[in-house]
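Can anyone check this?
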Amino acid sequence: MSVTEAPAKPPASTRAVLDFAWDAGKFRADDAIAATGRTRSTVPAALDSLIDIGLGEELPNGRQAPGARVEMALSTGSRGGSRLGRPARRFQLRAGAGVVIGVDAGWAHLTTIAADLSGHQLAREEVDVTEADRESPDRRRDLVLTAIDGVLATAGRAVDEVVSVGLGVPAPVNGQGISPPHPLHFWEHMNPGLQATLDELFPAARVENDAALATIAEGAAGAARGYQNFVAVLVGRRLGAAVFLEGQIVRGAHGAVGELGGLSLVAGIGNTTGLGTRAEEWAATALAEGRIPADHPWAELGADEFTAENLLASARLDDPVTGPLLTELGLTLGRICSVLAHFYDPEAIVLCGAVTGALTEVLRIARWYAAQEAQVPAPAILVSQLGGDVVAIGGLSAARDAARQIVVPTLLARQQQEARASGE
């Protein structure tokens, strides 16, 4: 769908009721009245307006399942007694009224998730990013749009049902979705005007740094839930971080707060290579140098199985072959966390990405090192439970937030367009 004009804002009462209904599940009108502070006349009117545009639905009260509790409205008689009246009206957000998309437009892979307005996932697709895709801005833009089309096809939904898209890229991103120039043009290739591209096609779009989307995911439904000061760190293929202080993401002048290029100046870290890549490179070198015995579990891995997840899953500190790798990774991670702790003073550091599930012994070393180096109470070093999809999940969360702001006028405009088309 091409977006040509900004839709009008809904009435304040409708907006307040939608904000309540967005995550409320099933609710009664009285629940919405209590939550919003609106009157008994404005709330039902707002609910009816949401139903009229297909964003809300009233649930049936007359046909309850056997044994189900029937919710009844109490009315007060003239003598102060109470009697059962008609069943209370019950409502819920009609999640199928639109689609939101979360995209992790990574360096090596592009993961896309489609969900309904409640955040329930409908489909997930992953494609490899080729060298040609990385080198050509036009091909990268096309790859993103093709991936969105693909996940919609898998979900059985149409492109004009999309309300918003949240997309993460491995580059600094400012508040307008724009990445600054990079000396080697890497950031421009990772984010070749994607905000403008998505704005032309969808009612709302939000392009963010990938670690920033991981931060959104962790704060909303992950390990950092309840924390007001934390840092989310992507540790798999490369190192990237986003900083959440005093309840909000901190960007800086160019969106580069949390960009970890400065780690190249820190002894014992040296670059922004992720722990997963370090593990794979270390093991490949050990194999080439003949330091892995033929009967070792690593020697039994095929070429396509020689991944960080598999390598670390069978690594042990007391194993003379794998122990040195775990020690090296643990000390490196400890130094990274210490640097972040000294600069940002977070309550917690959340490690994100597919590789984190295999870092148990590495974490033990890292936590010990960070505690030794702390000048103030050391932050908790936590492990994400969201897996390798954390960026795409954060994209969904950002897309849902954007959708909530514009979904009412967007659906109203679509309804008006359909009415005009049917009258022609």
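Reply from J.R.: I decoded it. The first helix runs from residue 12 to 21.
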